[in-house]
Amino acid sequence: MAIHPRPLKFPRNFVWGLATAAPQIEGAAFTDGKGSSIWDTFARQPGKVKNGDNLDVACDHYHLFKKDFALMAALGAKNYRLSIAWPRIFPTGRGAVNRKGLDFYQRLIDSMLAHGLTPWVTMFHWDLPQALEDDFGGWRDRRTADAFATYADTIVITYGDRVKNWITLNEIVCFTRMGYGTGLKAPGLKLPEQIVNQTYHNALLAHGHGLRAVREHGGKGARVGITDNIENSIPLTETPADIAAAKAQFVTANTRVLEPIFKGRYNPAYLRAAGADAPKFSAGDLEHISRPTDFLGLNVYWGDFVKAGKNGHPEVLPFPPSFPTTDAVWQRHTPQSMYWGPRMVAEIYGVKSIYITENGAGYLDPPHSKTPIHDLHRRDYVRNYLRELHRAIRDGVPVKGYFLWSFMDNFEWEDGYDIRFGVVHCDFKTQRRTPKLSARWYSEVMSANAIV
Ligand code: GBH
Fold first, then answer.
1. Residue range 391-400, pLDDT digits in tens
2. How far, CA to CA in Å, does 335 sit from each of 25, 304, 384?
3. Ligand 1 centroid to 268 CA: how many Å?
């Protein structure tokens, strides 16, 4: 008997893409008038970033972007998620605009379009101008959100004729709690909970301004959303009791960002629990934050297993030490997060249009590219997650696109350059780019619109 495997096809017009972020790839950290970002400062403090790595050169994409776009096009990519560096546009976060910074992204966007790449632009991917940190205390102060409003207006007015897909912010928790609470990320502070809660609120205000800027200046066909790294809850078994428990856990874990945006309020249970540490806000703030978006971006890397405990209460299961991870040890191999994450935001918040704005795998590939990199582990990680994404779409979850993180190896924040997420290898000594096996495979997926 001949067995014909049925290809796992994706819907017509499904958006396939590759993702990066300005501070992680551009380098040229002080070129053409760019101001310092809090990450430029953070990386210079001893012990903050692995091996003392910094963002000064990175992949030198600032100078090599044409080659990079040619390679993306050769791989058959049609969509590219990038970010704009705020300190290139406003070196001190506000005040005088830096013409050379504006011009750089003009050239970049023109080149992208010439290579058949549709831009998906993130306005803020963590590189806050250092001057805003010095003058206002960064995200601690709503004047930072006000400065963001002017920055957002400026870039939407300047690039809006050619950029139609906008993402306001990337992963609020990473630049608020991790920057001002745990201190793992820039600016590396460990401040009281009330302040951390205020940084979330000010970030949400900035999101509202980004949204408003696109509505006011985006022109015809402009669309805007935010990217969140939801904490995913995976029901231990796909039974009604565990699914209900996982959903309850999901709401608790993600209420900080999703509830103000999609319900125009802070969850009363969250406010009660926060008590005196709750953020200070006005009703007008929440109206501003919750204006309708066009889509939600999700970065999906892993999730927790949850089961129904006593009286159906959610019980999050601890991971045993031997549970498989990538070389980025936080990254548990849990493909089901790619099913349940999108499904839950659709069911709980009624989100009608979801894009996976990041998913990918971090491994310690060799630093040089002398021998071909057969990254079967990365390939299989992505393939397993895509199967679950396919299952979600088949079950009616409105996921419209997927961006693989990342196009090429880059500056992995506090982990420096050792951990590599690229499907294209970057030799940081020679700046040579070499597609890995995973890039060749993903290229086939994009062209077949199916898991091959
Ligand atoms: C994304 O963050 C970022 O958007 C992207 O810039 C980055 O390169 C990519 O993922 C790969 O890391 O507190 O134990 O979880 C992913 C979410 C949250 C993962 C912070 C690493 C730190 C360790 N990140 N987390 S832990």
1. 999 999 999 9
2. 27, 11, 6
3. 28
